[in-house]
Write a structure and sequence with these properties.
Elements lengths: L1 E5 L23 E2 L1 H8 L4 H9 L1 E4 L2 E4 L17 H5 L7 H5 L2 E5 L3 E6 L4 H7 L8 E4 L5 E3 L6 H22 L2 H21 L19 H37 L5 H23 L6 H17 L2 H16 L1
Parallel strand pairs: 1-6
Antiparallel strand pairs: 1-7, 2-4, 3-4, 5-6, 7-8
Helix pairs in contact: 6-9, 7-9, 7-10, 7-11, 8-9, 9-10, 9-11
Length: about 325
C-alpha cells in the first residue's frame, strides 16, 4: 500500500493559546457514531447528561449545539472543553481528537493530510518556498519527498484545472467590470449559503464591500490597491491551495467525478479571492489575519456539505457560459 503524507503532518504543532482562532467556535462539530455511543454510556452521570443535552440530531447526523456567538456548547468561558476537563482526550469525538489531521484510504492507497481551515496549515500553504508538499512513507517508515506531478491522475487533473482557472481569469480577472460582477455574484452566493445554514451569526465584516454598489472606476482603483497589498502572497496561496485540495479531495471522495472536483476547487479559489478583496478594504486589515478568516469562510460556504459544494459547481459553470 502506498502512503502519501502531507508536508507538515509529522511536524505539526498546535499554536494553542497563541492561535488567533479556536477550533471550538464557528464550526458545526459532528459527533461520530462511536463517540455518541460512548457518551451515552459514560459513568460520570452529570457529564453524560451535560454532553447529551448539548447534542442535536438531524438527518441521522449528530452534532454539538452552538451558542449564538458560534462557540461549541461544551466550551467554557476559560477556553477549555468540559469533556476534556472532566474526563480525558480519549473521550472526545473523532473531530475534536484528530483535528486538523485527516486520513483517507482505499484498497491500495492511504492519504495522511491536514485540514486547511487550521491557521498552521494556512501559514504553511502561504509559503512560497515549499519544496515538497507531499511525501511517501517507505516500508522503513521514513518519509521520502515525491513530485506529485508524476502521479498520473494528478497531472491530468491539474492540467484540466489550470485550463479552467485560466479561462475564468481571462474572462473576468482582466476586465474590472466583469471581475466586479464575478465578485458580487460570489458574495451573494456565499451569503445565501450562510443564511440557509443558519450561520449568519458569524458575520464579521467579510462581505461589507459588497453592500455598496461600486462603479467600474471605483472598483478598479480598489482592486489595484488590493493586488499591490495582497496580490503576490495570495497568488502563492492560491497555487499551493489548489495543489493541496486537488490531491486531498481525490482521496477524500474517490467516487467524485473529475470535473466535479476541479470545478469545486476553482470555485473555492474564486470565493477566497472574493472574500480577501473585501477584507483588505477593512480598517486595520492584515494579510495573516485576513487569509485565516477568508479560508474559514470558504470552508463554511464551499468545502463543508454536498449542497454548498453543488452550488459552487453550478456557479462556475454559469460564469464560464457567460
Amino acid at each position: 500500500m502506498k502512503i502519501y503524507v502531507f508536508g507538515n503532518y509529522m511536524d505539526f504543532k498546535c499554536l494553542a493559546g497563541n492561535c488567533q482562532t479556536t477550533c471550538c467556535s464557528g464550526w458545526k462539530i459532528v459527533v461520530d457514531r462511536e463517540a455518541y455511543e460512548r457518551f451515552k454510556n459514560l459513568e460520570n452521570k452529570s457529564l453524560r447528561a451535560d454532553i447529551l443535552s448539548n447534542i442535536v440530531e438531524k438527518d441521522d447526523v449528530h452534532s454539538f449545539k452552538n451558542r449564538t456567538n458560534g462557540d461549541c456548547a461544551m466550551l467554557d468561558g476559560d477556553g477549555l472543553c468540559r469533556i476534556q476537563r472532566n474526563s480525558n482526550e480519549k473521550t472526545l469525538c473523532n473531530t475534536c481528537r484528530k483535528y486538523p489531521r485527516l486520513s483517507f484510504s482505499d484498497k491500495d492507497t492511504m492519504l495522511l493530510s491536514m485540514a486547511a481551515s487550521c491557521p498552521v496549515i494556512i501559514e504553511y500553504l502561504s509559503n512560497d518556498k515549499i519544496k515538497n508538499m507531499w511525501y511517501e512513507m517507505g516500508t522503513d517508515k521514513k518519509m521520502y519527498p515525491i513530485d506529485i506531478s508524476g502521479v498520473n491522475w494528478f497531472a491530468q487533473d491539474k492540467n484540466r484545472f489550470d485550463i479552467l482557472i485560466n479561462d475564468i481569469k481571462t474572462k473576468y480577472y482582466l476586465k474590472s467590470e466583469r471581475l466586479s460582477e464575478l465578485f458580487f455574484d460570489f458574495a451573494d452566493m456565499a451569503v445565501d449559503i450562510i443564511i440557509s445554514c443558519k450561520d449568519c451569526m458569524y458575520f464579521d465584516g467579510s462581505f461589507d464591500a459588497y453592500e455598496e454598489q461600486m462603479q467600474g472606476e471605483e472598483f478598479r482603483r480598489r482592486y489595484n490597491d488590493f493586488t499591490k497589498k495582497y496580490g503576490e502572497r495570495l497568488a502563492t496561496f492560491d497555487k499551493n491551495y489548489a495543489d493541496y485540495r486537488i490531491f486531498t479531495k481525490k482521496y477524500e471522495n474517490p467516487d467524485e467525478d473529475t470535473y466535479d472536483r476541479i470545478y469545486q476547487v476553482a470555485g473555492e479559489i474564486v470565493m477566497l479571492d472574493t472574500i480577501m478583496f473585501s477584507l483588505s478594504l477593512q480598517k486595520g486589515s492584515n494579510y495573516e489575519k485576513d487569509i485565516v478568516n477568508a479560508v474559514h469562510w470558504v470552508y463554511k460556504t464551499a468545502v463543508h456539505g454536498k449542497v454548498s459544494g453543488s452550488k459552487m459547481h453550478k456557479k462556475i459553470m454559469e460564469i464560464l457560459a457567460k
